[in-house]
Design a protein that fits this description.
The chain has 138 residues and is an all-alpha fold. The protein is 76% helix and 0% strand. It contains six helices and no strands. Helix 4 (73-83) packs antiparallel against helix 6 (101-130). The longest helix is centred in the C-terminal third of the chain and has 30 residues, at 101-130.
Length: 138
């Protein structure tokens, strides 16, 4: 299997997972919350913040999917590297609020690492494609 095929499969998996995660937080924030590793439900009307998280996740999934479908593979690599910051921030947030260490590293940290690795693989793939020798003038 070529690097391009592996990258495409990884990007499709990232897109589908992030879209699913976003929709879960938008449509059922109460059901999605226990899985993020934070120790308690937000006070008051904190559910609105979870919907905001869902919208962030959903829009990130749309960006990945659109770049993949339109063939902007190098830009997709850079976007994946940038988007790896979000689960890393979630990991730091869970740890800062004395949440589950296992969830912080096992869910958010691992997700961040996998998204960053996928981005690096896309940059590696497209870096090779860009090293085409220039035509020799006649």
């Amino acid at each position: 299997m070529s690097l391009k095929n592996v990258n495409t499969a990884l990007a499709i998996a990232c897109t589908l997972f992030v879209l699913y995660l976003g929709l879960s937080f938008i449509l059922a924030p109460g059901a999605s919350t226990p899985g993020v590793g934070l120790p308690s439900w937000p006070d008051g009307d904190g559910g609105g913040f979870l919907v905001m998280k869902g919208i962030r996740e959903f829009s990130m999934g749309l960006v990945i999917g659109i770049l993949l479908v339109t063939g902007h593979r190098r830009a997709l690599g850079w976007v994946l590297l940038m988007e790896a910051v979000a689960p890393f921030g979630d990991m730091v947030n869970v740890l800062a609020h004395h949440g589950s260490v296992a969830a912080a590293f096992g869910i958010h940290g691992l997700t961040s690492a996998l998204v960053a690795l996928t981005g690096l693989l896309f940059l590696r793939e497209t870096g090779k494609a860009r090293k085409v020798p220039a035509p020799v003038p006649a």
